[in-house]
Write a structure and sequence with these properties.
Elements: H1 3-7, H2 17-25, H3 34-40, H4 42-68, H5 73-96, H6 104-135, H7 140-163, H8 173-177
Helix pairs in contact: 4-5, 4-7, 5-6, 6-7
Length: 178
């Protein structure tokens, strides 16, 4: 077997724009190392990419509302949460977690579950801001940054383990016994 044959690995057929970008980019020797890393942890890389977008929406809108408009931090945080949550749901559902439910009712259930999980972390983030900014007098934006790190980690776990988990069909025990 030649060296070229040893270097060839089987990767799945590109399914989305991100697979195509990685395949195009890794044709170049300088980036070839990334392909196995990408396919080994595709979900993680896409969650990180869209998580960055969610952070930019959350912190950017929060910063504008608190620093430029003088809005109270807890209200600004709740408003920024709405935009960030809608963006996160759309991108996580379409590209990150590949378990797609079918039907309008299933979509609503998934949206409510996702928003409910995010609401839990909103309450946590509101408490962090209340305690450290209002009660302890720490600067607003650094506390928001630290809170976002905690929120991202918990949101990933909620999305992965609860909202977008793979669901298997229920087992029909009567049918199996016959």
């Amino acid at each position: 077997m030649s060296n070229n044959e040893l270097r060839i690995r089987m990767y799945p057929k590109p399914r989305d724009v991100f697979d195509r970008i990685v395949n195009w980019l890794t044709k170049y020797r300088a980036f070839a190392w990334f392909k196995p890393i990408y396919y080994a942890a595709k979900e993680f890389w896409l969650y990180a990419l869209f998580g960055l977008g969610t952070i930019i929406i959350s912190i950017g809108s929060y910063d504008i509302m608190t620093e430029s408009m003088g809005m109270p931090i807890l209200i600004a945080n709740a408003i920024s949460w709405i935009g960030a949550t809608l963006f996160a749901f759309a991108t996580n559902r379409k590209w990150v977690f590949t378990t797609h439910v079918k039907g309008a009712w299933a979509f609503v259930v998934q949206l409510v579950g996702f928003s409910g999980g995010r609401f839990v972390t909103l309450i946590m983030e509101e408490w962090i801001l209340l305690f450290f900014v209002y009660m302890k007098g720490l600067p607003n934006m650094p506390v928001k940054y630290v809170a976002q790190v905690l929120v991202i980690a918990i949101n990933y776990l909620i999305s992965k383990l609860v909202v977008f988990r793979s669901r298997t069909a229920p087992v029909d025990h009567e049918r199996l016994e016959s």
